[in-house]
Amino acid sequence: PLDRDQPNGRPQWRFTVFAQDEGGEGLVGYADVQVNLKDINDNAPIFPQGVYFGNVTENGTAGMVVMTMTAVDYDDPNEGTNAKLIYSIEKNVIEEETGSPIFEIEADTGVIKTAVCCLDRERTPDYSIQVVAMDGGGLKGTGTASIRVKDINDMPPQFTKDEWFTEVDETDGTNLPEMPILTVTVHDEDETNKFQYKVIDNSGYGADKFTMVRNNDGTGSLKIVQPLDYEDPLQSNGFRFRIQVNDKGEDNDNDKYHVAYSWVVVKLRDINDNKPQFERPNIEVSVYENADVGKTLETFKATDPDQGGKSKVSYAIDRSSDRQRQFSINQEGTVTIQRNLDREVTPRHQVKILAIDDGIPPKTATATLTVIVQDINDNPPKFLKDYRPVLPEHVPPRKVVEILATDDDDRSKSNGPPFQFRLDPGADDIIRASFKVEQDQKGANGDGMAIVSSLRSFDREQQKEYLIPIVIKDHGNPAMTGTSTLTVVIGDVNDNKMQPGSKDIFVYNYLGQAPDTQIGRVYVYDLDDWDLPDKKFHWESQEHPRFKLDEDTGMITMRQGTRDGRYHLRFKVYDRKHTQADVPANVTVTVREIPHDAVINSGSIRIAGITDEDFIRVWNYRTQSLSRSKADRFKDKLADLLNIDRENVDVFSVQLRRKHPPLTDVRFSAHGSPYYKPVRLNGIVLMHREEIEKDVGVNITMVGIDECLYENQMCEGSCTNTLDISSLPYMVNANKTSLVGVRVDVLAECTCGARNFSKAESCRSSPCHNGGRCMETRYGLSCSCPTGYTGPRCQQTTRSFRGNGWAWYPPLAMCDDSHLSFEFITRKSDGLLLYNGPIVPPERDELLVSDFISVELERGFPRLLIDFGSGTLELRVKTKKSLDDGEWHRLDIFWDTENVRMVVDYCKSAEVSEMEDGSPPEFDDSSCQARGTIPPFNEYLNVNAPLQIGGFYREQFDPTHYRWNYMPMGKGFDGCIKNLVHNSKLYDLAHPGLSRNSVAGCPQTEEVCSQSEQTSRCWEHGNCVGSFTEARCQCRPGWTGPACNIPTIPTTFKQQSYVKYALSFEPDRFSTQIQLRFRTREQHGELFRVSDQHNREYGILEIKDARLRFRYNLNSLRTEERDIWLNAIAVDDGQWHVVRVNRHGSAATLELDGGEGRRYNETFTFDGHQWLLVDKQEGVYAGGKAEYTGVRTFEVYADYQKSCLDDIRLEGKHLPLPPAMNGTQWGQATMARNLERNCPSNKPCANVICPDPFECVDLWNEYECT
Predict the structure, then answer these.
(1) 3-state secondary structure (DSSP) of residue 826
(2) Which of 80, 476, 898, 1179 is deepest in the core (most CB within 10 A)?
(3) Burial 212-229 (b: 16+ CB within 10 A, else e)
(4) Computed over its alpha carbons, how large is the radius of gyration of the chain?
(5) Distance of CA 548 to the CA centre of its chain
C-alpha cells in the first residue's frame, strides 16, 4: 500500500512511460505520469518529547501564561480536518478549597494558563497534568506537562533555636580572634533567601562587642569586634543580647513579616592575659661585702588579677642579670645572699626579679633589685706593675728601682694608701746581703714608695737574675699585708772572649710549604750573651743556595722549597771588642716534612715553670756542661710508653704561651701505620703523668690542651676549641740547639661549635670518615661511603662489648645547652654504658677539675651521674620493665647550666589522659623521665680525658680526692651501643683511640639478621634492624618491598595538585613518624600533613622560604602551635632530599639527609597536650590540602607544585603515590589531582642558545651554560 505521510511516505510519485514498435526494434515514444496521493486520516497526533517542562511564579493572578504544548500530525493539513488539532486537558489538578481546576489550555494554540490565582510553592512546589491533542477524525495523542512553581520570598525566616549559647576565651589585650565564635542556622521555607543578620543595638549587655556576618551557605556567624575582659566585674558573668535575621537581604526591619529574632548568651572563660603586678618594682639595698650567706635583703610582693584574683604567683631571678647566682629568692618573694659577695669583682648588682603567674601559658612581670656592695679591707696591696729592672754587672752599689703599690680596696674608705714597704725578713741570706729596701713616705704623692738599692757588684756569668720578696702593708683597719716579688736582671757586659761553637737545628716543615723562615742563630761558645752588637757573621766559603745569613745578627734563614735532608753549614765570626776574627762555627740543619694528618692527630701537654728554650736546651751555663734536652727525654718516654720505635715519634711544636711565670705548650704525634688518635696519646700520657714528670723533669699542668677546661675563664658560656694551624713556622732558638716547629694554636671560640652553622661546610672542616669520598658540589657536601658505614659522614654507628672491654673516643665538647643520646641492647642487668671524667687521681698542687658524667645500667634500670665540679647529681628512672630484655632502648640526656633530664625511649611508656572538655591533660612520666638540679655553683661539664664507652679503663682512686658524692659502679657492659650523638654530631665508633674486647658493629644482632632469608638479603638497599630475637628490613629511601629490592616511583606534583589518603591502619596518638623524599626549586609548599577531622589538631611538614619546617598543634580547643625549622639549609636546590619527622607527644625532631649538625633540630619537652588524633579518612594529605569551593572546583592551599615527591612513609609504612601506584596494604589514595609519573625536568634548555663554546646543561628545572 502507498503511504503519503512522513516519516517514511511521500505525497507524490512521478515517472516516465516508454512505448516502442517493431517488437522492440522500432521507434520510441514516451509520456510523463504524475500520481498525487489523496490523504486519509491514518495518523494520530503525537507529542515528540513526551514530557514538557514549564514554570510559573507563585502568588500570581489567574490567566498567567505557563507554557505552550505543540503536537505534530503527519496527515495533510489541506485535506479537510485530518491535521487540524484541538488541545484539551485530560487530567487536570484541582484546588482543594474550591474544587476548581488549576490550569486551562487554549484549544487552538496549546497555550497553558493558570485558571486560579495565588499558587503557593510552599504547599505544592510541582504539578503534572496530561494534555490531549485530537485531530478532525477523532484520533488522539497525549503529552505530559510538568509545571514547577517558582519561589517568591513569601515565607518568614525563623531561627532554629530561641536561644543560642556559646563559651569563649576572653581576648588577649586588643588582639581579636578572626574565627567566628558561634554559627547560627535559620529555617525558611522559601527556596532562595538573601539572609541579612545583625546584632540588635542596646538589646542587652555586650551587644556592642559582637557583630553578625552571613556565610556562603546562608548560616550566620557571630564575631568579636571589641576586647572582652574577664577581669571586668561587669563582663565576668557573660553577655545576653538579641540578634535578628531578615530574609530580604536588607538591613531595615520595617517589614516585620520578613524578620526573625533570637537570643544569644555568651559566657566568658578566663585566660591568662594579665601580668602579675609588683607593689614595689624598684628596690635598692646596701650591704657589706663580707655579709653572711643566707642574709635577707628585701621581700618583693606581686599580685595577679587573673582567675578572679585567685591566681598563684611564683618568684624567680632572671639568671642573665645574676650570672654568678649570688642571690636567691623564695616563694614568699624574699631575696637572700647565696654566694659570698666581692666588691672588687662587682661593686653593684642589678638583679632582675621575675613574678610568674600560674596561667597556661604563664605571664611574667619584672622588678629590679639594686644591691650596692660596701667595701671592707680584704685585699693586700701589690706592685703597681711588673718591675724587671736591669742592673749591669761589675758596677758598685747603687739605686736599682723605685717601687709603687696599688690596692683593689676602696680608697675613700681608707682601705688603701698610704703603704708601708720592707724587705721580707724571711728572705735568703744572699738576698739580704745583696739588696736593701727603704721606705719613702712622701713619695707617690704621699701614698708611699720603696727604693731598692744594691749592696755589692754582680757577675752575670754566675747568676743572671735575683728574686727579692718585698712586704707591703696598707692603711685599713685592720690592715692587710701582702708580699710581691721583684725580679732584678743582671745586665751583660762583653767581658769574655768567644771560642768555636757548633749547633744543631731541627726544622719541621708543615706540608713542605714553609715560606722563607728564620731557623736560628749561628752559635759560638761565649759566656757573654748580650754582646751581639759587637759581633759580625760570615760564610766560611761560598754561601749555601738554600740558606741566607744576616751578617749583623747571625740569624740563618731557610729559603722556601728546601727539601727534606741534612745540611752542613760553616760560618766564621768576628768580635770587634776583643778583636777576634774568623772564629769558626758549624751548623747542622735537619729538615723533615710533617703531614697534616700528624698535626690534627697530635697529643699535647702544657708545662709550667720552664720556657720553650729551656725545653730544648742541651747546654747548662751554670755547670758549663752538655746534657740531653727535655724534648729528647720526652720523646724517649713516649716511644717507651707507646711501645714503638723512637723514629715514629715527633715532638714537632714547642711554643711559649706565657712569659712570666713561664708556660709552654708541647705537641707530639706518633704513628703505627696510621697516626695514633689524640685521645690515645693524651690518655696514655695522662695515665703515666707522674712518671713522665719525674723522668723528663717537667711539671705537666694539662694533658690535651683545652682552652675551655676552666669554667668562665675564656668564655662566659659555651666554649669550643679550634685547632688553628699556621703555615708560618714557630722558632725556638737556644744556644746549641734550635727547633723550628709547626705553629699550632688552640683557640677558644665562645660558641657551641656543634651548633654554630655560621661557617660554610667544607671537606676539611667536616670530613668523611673511614675512607669515604667527600664531594663538594655547588649544593653542599656529600659522602660516598664504603659498605657497612651507614652514618651521614660514613661513621660506624655501632659498637659491641663483651662485658670486660672498653673503647676510648674524643671527650664531650663543652656546650652550655647539651643533648647526648644513644641506643643500647643487652641481656645483662649491670654495665657501664658511658663515662667521661678523670682517669687518674689529681696531683697535689693542680687546679682541680672534678667534672664527670657516667651512665650505667644497674639492676636493669638506667642511672646517670653528672658533676660540674661542685657536687654530684644522681638520676635514676624506674622503667615499667627493666631494660636488659634483648631489645634496643634509647636514652636522651639533656643538661644546661642548672637542670638535667634523662628520658628513656622517648617516654613512650608515659601514662597520658586527655579529656575533650578543656580540662588540663595529665602526663605521668615517672616510668620514663627523671629530672634534677646540679649542686651549685658550677655551670658546665668540662671534661678533656677520653670518653669511655662500654667500660672503664683507669687507675683506681679514692672518689673523695674529687669530692664526688656518688661513684659509678663501673661494671663492664655486655651488649651493643649505637648512634651515639652529642649536640647533633654523630660519633664515629669505627676506630677508638684505644680499646679492649670490643668490636665494630653488633655481631649479636647481625647473627639474627643472617638467619632469615629475607633479612639476609636486605643489606643491598636497606638495613637489617634486629634485636637479639627478631629482625626486619628497613629500606633505604627510594626502595620498598619485603627485601627492599623494588625501587619506588616518584611523582611530579603540578600546579593545584594533591593526594588525599585513606589509611587502613589506626595511627598512633602519641607518636608520629613521617619520612619522604622530595625535590624542588620552589620556595614554598606543603609536603605532607596529618590532622583530625576539623583540622584543629595537626602536624604539617612544609617548605617555607626555602627552609624545612614542621609545625604541629595538639590542643583541639585552642591553637598552641609549636614548630621546628632547619634554618641553615636551603632545600630549593633541585636535588633529591630525604626528610624525617619524629614526634613523640609534644617532643619532635626534624632531620634532613641523615640529620647531622645543621640538618637536625629538635624540641624535646613534654608539656601540655601529647596526643594527635589523626582522621584516617579525612586527615592525611600530600602536596597540600584541597578545599572544595564548588561541586567540581577546588583550591589547594600551600600548593606544593612543579616539584616531586617519592617514597612517603607514615609510621614506617609505605603510602602509595599515584599515578604509578594507587594503593598499598597500608592505605589508598582516594583523591589525586594534577600528578604525573616520574620526575622529569621541564626541559629548561629547549629555548636557550648559549654563546660559543658553552653548551646548555639541564640541571633539572634550571639550566646553566658551561
Answers:
(1) strand
(2) 1179
(3) bebeeebbbbbbbeebbb
(4) 48
(5) 55
* CATH number at 796-908+923-1001: 2.60.120.200
Cell numbers at 1151, concatenated? 632531620
Cell numbers that stand for 373 in this block: 656592695
Fold for domain 1038-1237? Jelly Rolls (2.60.120)
CATH of 277-374, one of 3.40.640.10, 3.30.70.270, 2.60.40.60, 2.20.25.100: 2.60.40.60
Cα distances (Å, whole numbers) of residue 696 to 505, 622, 669, 821: 21, 19, 18, 41
State yes or no: cis peptide before 1047, omega within 30 of 0: no
Q: What is the pLDDT of residues 378-436, one digit of tens each?
A: 999 999 999 999 999 999 999 999 999 999 999 888 899 899 999 999 999 999 999 99
Helix (H) / strand (E) containing 632: helix 630-642
- 808, HSE (Cβ side, Cα atoms, 13 Å): 21
501-510 vs 580-594, strand pairing mode: parallel
3-class state of residue 694 by DSSP = helix
* The CATH fold of domain 1-152: Immunoglobulin-like (2.60.40)
- Spatial distance between the Cα atoms of 1235 and 1220, rounded to a whole number of angstroms: 10
For residue 16, the Cα-to-chain-centroid distance in whole angstroms is 103
* Bridging pattern class, strands 220-224 and 239-246: unpaired
Q: What is the DSSP letter of 447?
A: T
One of 3.40.50.1100, 1.10.3290.10, 1.10.357.10, 3.30.70.2470 is the CATH number of 596-725+743-751, namely 3.30.70.2470
* pTM listed for this prediction: 0.79
Residue partners of 425: CB distance under 8 A and separation at least 6: none
- Residues present in the chain in total: 1266
**Residues with Cβ < 8 Å from 204, sequence gap 6 or more?**
239, 240, 241, 242, 263
Question: 726 and 514 in contact (C-beta within 8 Å)?
Answer: no
* pLDDT tens digits, one per residue of 1057-1097: 999 999 999 999 999 999 999 999 999 999 999 999 888 89
Contact assessment for residue 771 and residue 559, using Cβ atoms and an 8 Å cutoff: no
What element of type H or E holds 683?
Answer: helix 678-687
Architecture of domain 503-594: Sandwich (2.60)
For residues 389 and 488, is the Cβ–Cβ distance under 8 A?
yes
Q: Which residues of 631-641 are buried (b: 16+ CB within 10 A; e: fewer)?
A: bbbbbebbbeb
- Using CA atoms, how far residue 308 sits from 237, 269, 364, in Å, is 12, 11, 18
What are the backbone angles phi and psi of residue 1196, rounded to the nearest 5°? Answer: -95, 120
Local structure of 565: helix, strand or coil: strand
User: What whole-number distance in Å separates Cα of residue 358 and Cα of residue 896?
Assistant: 24
What count of other Cβ atoms lies within 10 Å of the Cβ of residue 1080?
Answer: 26
Name the strands in the sheet holding 535-539, side by side, starting at the edge strand that comes first in the sequence: 535-539, 565-575, 580-594, 501-510, 737-749, 720-733
* Nearest-angstrom CA–CA distance, 530 and 1032: 79
* H/E stretch holding 371: strand 364-374
C-alpha cell at 488: 732584678
Q: Residue 366 carries which side chain, given as an amino acid letter?
A: T
Q: Do 480 and 473 contact (CB within 8 A), yes or no?
A: yes
Report the pLDDT value the prediction gives residue 1193, as an integer from 0 to 100: 79
What is the pairing mode between strands 210-214 and 220-224? Answer: antiparallel
C-alpha distances in angstroms, 1093 versus 315, 650, 1178, 1199? 41, 69, 6, 20
With a cut of 50, which residues of the chain have pLDDT below it?
none
CA 178 to chain centre: 31
DSSP letter assigned to residue 358? S
Same fold, 277-374 and 596-725+743-751: no
Separation between Cα atoms, residue 65 and residue 62, nearest integer Å: 9
Cell of 58: 507563585
